[in-house]
Structure formats: structure tokens, C-alpha cells
Amino acid sequence: MTNADKPTIAVLGAGKIGEALLSGLLAGGRRPDELMFTERHGERASELTNRYGIRAVDVATAAKDARVLVVAVKPQDIEPLLDELAPAVGGDSLVVSLCAGLPTSLYERRLPDGVPVVRVMPNTPMVVGEAMSAISPGRFATADHLAVVEELLGVVGLVVRVPESQQDAVTALSGSGPAYFFFLVEAMIDAGILLGLPRAVSEKLIIQSAVGAATMLARTGEHPVTLREAVTSPAGTTIMAIRELENHGVRAALLAAIEAAHDRSQELGRQHED
């Protein structure tokens, strides 16, 4: 796709994810004049315009001037946004929803008939260009629309296509996944401090171990069980630690936690049903 063919993009809601996407698009070669954003707080809007050179607009202007409208507000803020968007959006627009739990049917019900919608579940590593985003087409979205969204999000991480029926599972697994990871890393750092290590040393040991382990998983293609067994010597330190994790039900707790996140994602969607 040539630069002349690239659609103008408006990010509706410039929180952390919205800003991360804008920053990634600029890093990926977009010009500031190809982008715009909406933001309710004037001070925040000025801050982002000064930082990136991207103009802040209202929702009606975004709907009129941009071909791709990326909705990046919190789920509880979606209704007033759709109230503003519905009378302004046209059939040649593409709406991309980054809102956890919200189905494409909500947008299709509230927006003019035929407006294509693509549902996305990204995650916060978008801030460092390492997001995992899953995308699903709504009723009016075509393969071309999905390709536009894949290119859009490809500058800030990896993208997979899934049926929309799997999006609540994606939300629970990768959408919330970084929080589980940070929680475990926090506990491991505290364990290092408990064993007498300075906090700075414990942090460095655990963070680099996590980066290295994730890189091994990504690059080797080995199953995590295989990689774990390679570290687990008979009667060694690792197997003793694994036994304690199993005794304390860590695996079961993770399964229950992810299932609870899945249920909450479904609940968020049901809150906006007719």
C-alpha cells in the first residue's frame, strides 16, 4: 500500500493504549497529518499535540475526516461516544473497537446500517511495540477491512485473526495476561528480597530471566514443558520449587483466575445488550 493509499486514522480516546497506537503509527512511518485523536480533557489533548504534532479534534470532525476510527475508550464510556458518533459516521468508514468485552453487534446496532466494524483485543505491551492483538470481523467487515487493521496494528506488535466467539477468551488470556505476568514477577522479586538480596539485584535477576525465558519460547518453538524439564534436574533445586508450586495450587489458581476474567469480559458485553 502506497502512502497515498493509506487511510487517515482517528483514535477516539487517547489514554495509554490510544497514545501507544499513535506513537507506534508514527514510528511505523505515518505522518502526523495522517492522524488525529479525540480527548475529553483539554490539558491531556494539548500534551499529546505538543509531543507528537497530531491534532486533537471532536468526534464529529474525526468521523468526517478519517476513514478509520479506532475506538479506544473504556467500556463504561462507550455509550456517550456512540451517541456522538452515530449521526456523524458514514458507510465508507471503518470502525475498529479496542474496548474489552464489547461485541461488534453493539456498534452495528447503534451506528448506521452497513458500517463495518472490527473488534480487537490488544494488550498493554503495545506501549513498547510488543502487543498481542486478536482481531475479529463484524457482520459488514470484509477481508480487505481485516487487512487494513492487520497493517494498522502490525506496527505495534503481532496480530492474529480469531472468530468473535473467542474474543472473551482472548481478553482473559492475552488482554489481561501482562497483569498476571507482572504479579508473578513482583512475587519473585519479593522472594529474592526475603532471601537477602538487595531489591535492585533481585529485580535485575528476575526481569532478565523473564525476558530470556520468553525469548526462548518465541525463538525455539519448543513446548514450555520441554523447556521447563531442561531446567529440572533430578532431586535438584527446581523440582523442589515446582513441587511447592503444585502443593499450593498455583496452576489451579491461574486457571481459575483466567476463567474469572473470561466471565467478566462476557458480563461487560451483556451490560450493553438491548
Automatic annotation (TrEMBL):
Q: Which GO terms describe its cellular component?
A: cytoplasm
Tell me yes or no: is NADP among this UniProt entry's keywords. yes
Biological process terms in GO annotation = L-proline biosynthetic process
List the catalysed reactions.
L-proline + NAD(+) = (S)-1-pyrroline-5-carboxylate + NADH + 2 H(+); L-proline + NADP(+) = (S)-1-pyrroline-5-carboxylate + NADPH + 2 H(+)
Subcellular localization is given as:
Cytoplasm
Binding locations of NADP(+): A72, V73, K74, P75
Q: Look up the record and name the pathway of this protein.
A: Amino-acid biosynthesis; L-proline biosynthesis; L-proline from L-glutamate 5-semialdehyde: step 1/1
Residue ranges constituting the Pyrroline-5-carboxylate reductase catalytic N-terminal domain according to the UniProt record: 8-101
Q: Please verify whether the record's keywords include Phosphoprotein.
A: no
Give the domain of life.
Answer: Bacteria
Top EC class for this record: oxidoreductase
Which InterPro entries is this protein grouped with? 6-PGluconate_DH-like_C_sf, NAD(P)-bd_dom_sf, P5C_Rdtase_cat_N, P5CR-like_CS, P5CR_dimer, Pyrroline-COOH_reductase
Q: Which UniProt keywords apply?
A: Amino-acid biosynthesis, Cytoplasm, NADP, Oxidoreductase, Proline biosynthesis
Pyrroline-5-carboxylate reductase dimerisation domain residues are 164-268
Q: Which residues form the signal peptide?
A: none
Enzyme Commission number(s) of this protein: 1.5.1.2
* SUPFAM superfamilies listed in its UniProt record: 6-phosphogluconate dehydrogenase C-terminal domain-like, NAD(P)-binding Rossmann-fold domains
Give an example GO molecular function: pyrroline-5-carboxylate reductase activity
Function of the molecule: Catalyzes the reduction of 1-pyrroline-5-carboxylate (PCA) to L-proline.
Sequence similarity:
Belongs to the pyrroline-5-carboxylate reductase family.
Protein name according to UniProt: Pyrroline-5-carboxylate reductase
Q: Organism classification, top ranks?
A: Bacteria, Bacillati, Actinomycetota, Actinomycetes, Pseudonocardiales
Which gene specifies this protein's sequence? proC
